[in-house]
Design brief:
Layout (H helix, E strand, L loop, with lengths): L9 H27 L5 H9 L18 H14 L1 H20 L2 H12 L5 E4 L15 E5 L3 E12 L6 E7 L9 E7 L5 E6 L10 E12 L3 E2 L5 H37 L1 E2 L2 E2 L4 H29 L6 H26 L1 H4 L5 H11 L6 H17 L2
Parallel strand pairs: 1-4
Antiparallel strand pairs: 2-3, 3-7, 4-5, 5-8, 6-7, 9-10
The structure holds flavin-adenine dinucleotide.
Length: 388
């Protein structure tokens, strides 16, 4: 339960209500089982598609709702209140779609985006490789133009969310190694393209309902027009994609933090020790108070950042990184605190907070670790202040 009124429009409130209903009726009842059995949440994604939420951030001309970052953040927060694994799966489809929206030609957008907007097809985004994590410039996957009309891709992408489940993949590959950062380009690869297969499926600490898998390209042939934007603009597209998607990861932190706080307060009111509910002890109240402060502060920052992005601001790397760090560090801390407030119960799988604690950790790692975000923020500050 949030205590601050953010003066949502009718449309925004409707997005929250629809996402909340799916979360309460579909996600929360199934999350423990999907997590335990590491099952991809196909049915729930279909429910989200039926509610028309896959197209929230997609322009109307490509079959979307025509909303923006704020609409996405509102929906993601609700889904994450239920399960960060399922919310990650939904968010990763947007992550895979952004490069097409940012850099794709009208023809390529018309080919792929309406299916993603309708939730008929899911997308995935592939940057990471075995030797290229934080240092994306270390990618080894190559794309070579063969006979002038087909790209041939070779290499392996690692830890790709929705890998093996999505039908549409946006991939960055080296097209001219000599050109350094301007030597990489982005492509769309489809499930079933010749030479494209799936490798190792990961077993994870948390977000177990989400699929994380290797993508293998062995002389994978795709038509020439599957390149996104001009040759050499791959890293530009990647950076812009991550700028747009990081507030979404931040909102997963807000949703998880809210859920952990809710569980902790309800438990503390019911658990009686020394003849009183444990919430009557000031030590417990202070933990809960700090949790509430941090959740609300993070929510305010994420909403403000999303609205700033929707205002048309272009230079958003610092702000996007700041809200990702704030809300995901908060989520980790608040989840650990919730386990503490529940005591031994919090450690048991029967209660949802142990899963929240496992799930929270990934938010500080994927889409750029929080150390890398701090580098981005620090470098931006250095630049800003050297202008004065
Ligand atoms: C579950 C999961 C899902 C993922 N989904 C996707 C996906 O869909 N698509 C995709 O492309 N990738 C995905 N990733 C990859 C993810 O984005 C990377 O794991 C992340 O960027 C960090 O890279 P790394 O794990 O190789 O860590 P490393 O780069 O090896 O870093 C190790 C440690 O060193 C620190 N470090 C490294 N360099 C610096 C530096 N310059 N300054 C300060 N600290 C530094 C890091 O913060 C970290 O603590 C996923 C990862 C996981 C675990």
């Amino acid at each position: 339960m949030s205590c601050v009124d953010y003066f949502l429009s009718e449309e925004q409130q409707m997005i929250v209500d629809v996402a909340r209903q799916i979360t309460d009726e579909k996600i929360i009842p199934q999350r423990a089982e999907l997590d335990e059995s590491e099952t991809f949440p196909t049915e729930i994604l279909n429910d989200i598609a039926q509610a028309d939420l896959f197209g929230l951030y997609i322009p109307e001309e490509y079959g979307g709702f025509g909303g923006g970052s704020f609409d996405m953040v509102l929906a993601l927060e609700q889904f994450a209140r239920g399960c960060v694994g399922i919310a990650t799966t939904f968010a990763a489809s947007a992550l895979g779609a952004y490069p097409i929206i940012i850099s794709g030609s009208d023809e390529i957008k018309q080919k792929y985006i309406p299916d993603i907007a309708a939730g008929r097809k899911w997308a995935a985004f592939a940057l990471t490789e075995a030797n290229a994590g934080s240092d994306a410039s270390g990618i080894q996957t190559t794309a070579v133009l063969d006979d002038g009309d087909e790209w041939v891709l070779n290499g392996t992408k690692q830890w790709i969310t929705n890998g093996g489940e999505a039908q549409i993949y946006t991939i960055i590959a080296i097209t001219d190694r000599k050109k350094g950062p301007r030597g990489a380009s982005m492509f769309v690869v489809e499930d079933g393209d010749p030479g494209f297969s799936y490798g190792k499926k990961e077993k994870k600490l948390g977000i177990r309902a989400s699929a994380t898998r290797e993508l293998v390209f062995q002389d994978c042939r795709i038509p020439k027009n599957r390149m996104l934007g001009r040759q050499g603009t791959g890293f530009f597209t990647v950076m812009r994609t991550l700028d747009l998607s990081r507030p979404g990861i931040a909102s997963l932190g807000v949703g998880l933090g809210q859920a952990a706080l809710d569980e902790a307060v309800v438990h503390a009111k019911h658990r009686v020790q020394f003849g009183k509910p444990v919430i009557s002890f000031q030590a417990v109240q202070h933990i809960l108070a700090d949790m509430a402060i941090q959740v609300e502060a993070s929510r305010a920052m994420v909403y403000a950042t999303a609205r700033y992005i929707d205002s048309g601001a272009r230079n958003i790397s610092k702000e996007s990184s700041m809200c990702k760090v704030m809300a995901t560090d908060m989520a980790m801390k608040v989840a650990v605190d919730a386990v503490q407030v529940l005591g031994g119960h919090g450690y048991m799988r029967e209660y949802p907070v142990e899963k929240m604690m496992r799930d929270a950790k990934i938010l500080q790692i994927y889409e750029g670790t929080n150390q890398i975000q701090r580098n981005v923020i620090g470098q931006a500050l250095n630049k800003e202040y050297s202008r004065n």
